Amino acid sequence: MTRKVAILISGGGSNMVSLVRSMTGDHPARPVLVLSNRPDAGGLQKAADLGITTAVVDHKPYGTDREGFEAEVTAAIEAAGADLVCLAGFMRVLTPYFVGHWSGRMLNIHPSLLPKYKGLHTHARALDAGDAEHGCSVHEVTAELDGGPILGQARLPVLPGDTPDTLAARVLPLEHQLYPAVLRRYATGDRTPILLSAANA
Ligand code: GRF
Known about the structure:
The chain is of the alpha/beta class.
């Protein structure tokens, strides 16, 4: 059975593009929706250019009513017929209601070697700590922010002179390799972790 994937974004959508482009041929899944909480997200046009249905559920009018916002997001995802959710730069902290509803069916990409540096500013924190290695992780989403089971990691060496921007620019192409590889397995129910490095990515 082909799995149907909804991809949630808030920004430029480069991970979304790599996921959509990977779901062809014998891939066990197909993208059916790209949804953003920001009407001005650059990724919406990229998704439309790839022929994917898009939707916007603006979180602002909901104020502090997070579950109300998430109920509308869930309704849009289910109306599209999706049974798998990929968070790709979706910058909303999710409530236990949403996480529970999509439990075992939702992935996220995070720009650090989890469990290190959950949350924001991961590249600066890795540099401040003097880490020799850095990278990104794909994990299943649970109620603990960036805390779910890790299903893939890609790592690279931190180079002399690296800044948060240069590090981010070298990690992002690894994200574009790792996320599609994990989704391809996850969509078949295979949760065997994928480990990549800049050398073999
Ligand atoms: C990525 O670095 C991702 O790891 C993080 O947000 C960024 C989104 O980038 N959660 P894009 O919108 O996919 O280009």
